[in-house]
Amino acid sequence: MHSLQKFLLLIALFSSTVAFGQLTADPEDRREQGKDPLRTQTPEGRPLPFSQRLRFGGGINNLRFGNPFSIGVSPVIAYQTTERLLLGVGGTYAYTRYKAISNTGATVPFQTYNQYGGRVFAMYEFIPSILPNLYLHGEVENSSISVRNDQSGATGNYSLTAPLLGLTYSQPISGRFGINLTALYNLNYNQNQAVAQAIYGSPLVIRLSFF
Length: 211
Prior knowledge:
211 residues; signal; Outer membrane protein beta-barrel domain-containing protein
């Protein structure tokens, strides 16, 4: 587990470094001609090479304070398939500390959750002439969760699959980098499932990411 955490941290650091480097490197920028930058072509109309269609980044997710307390990171690699379609993959790590509420007044120990997972997603800019940079967003996230009872030391392992649908608004900073605000609905959320309640909190998932 420790090696996986280090690996995810290295991916996040690498992605962030590349993403910030893209802030000043935008060879497709056509703003000087009063036009929007092209995402898959050069200004002369030639297809961009594979490497120039890639977007690297990530974000902080599962951020909650109180009970539960939760924080996570999610590195992302995305590919600009067409001018309007973006496909991507990402990793996920989240730490959660949660204390269930007892109806009987009995003392309930804290539990620690370590979530490791991956996701695939698609974003489609569906009404660019009316609301540019607004995307339909669909993804599937699969997670493995290790749960530890802080009092007894007992552990358990679970898995969750979450199909998510919603919208992303992307504010471009360069041709291959933007700030993204995402609101998704978890179609597989079960409020009676303790692990899902601790990890997601509700069927609504809000994310802020950079890629």
